[in-house]
Amino acid sequence: MVFFTCLNCNESLQKPKVAKHYTGRCYGPINVTCVDCLKDFRGNEYEAHVKCLTEEERYSAKGFVAKPSSCKGKC
Question: How far is residue 67's CA from residue 65's CA, in Å, rounded to a whole number?
């Protein structure tokens, strides 16, 4: 699940709750930042942000290569 931070009030939001947040709490243009990759999104740009970095990728050394999944299609 992708999480965003509202740039107006600094509240953490799950992706499905972003639109509701801006209609009920923070009025004005949608301005959010992805918690994982720290990319800023304006308006409805956040809707296209489906997948992001994993915590392991973000904090690993340069040239990180993810290990293959051990679930082999069962996940």
Answer: 7
For residues 9 and 7, give the distance between their C-alpha atoms in angstroms, rounded to a whole number: 6
Percent of the chain past pLDDT 70, that is, above it, reads: 69
Sorted by where each begins, the domain ranges of the chain are 3-51
pTM: 0.67
C-beta separation of 8 from 24 below 8 A: no
DSSP states of 3-62: EEEETTT--EEEGGGHHHHHHHTS-SS-EEEETTT--EEEGGGGGG------HHHHHSPT
Domain 3-51 classification at class level: alpha beta
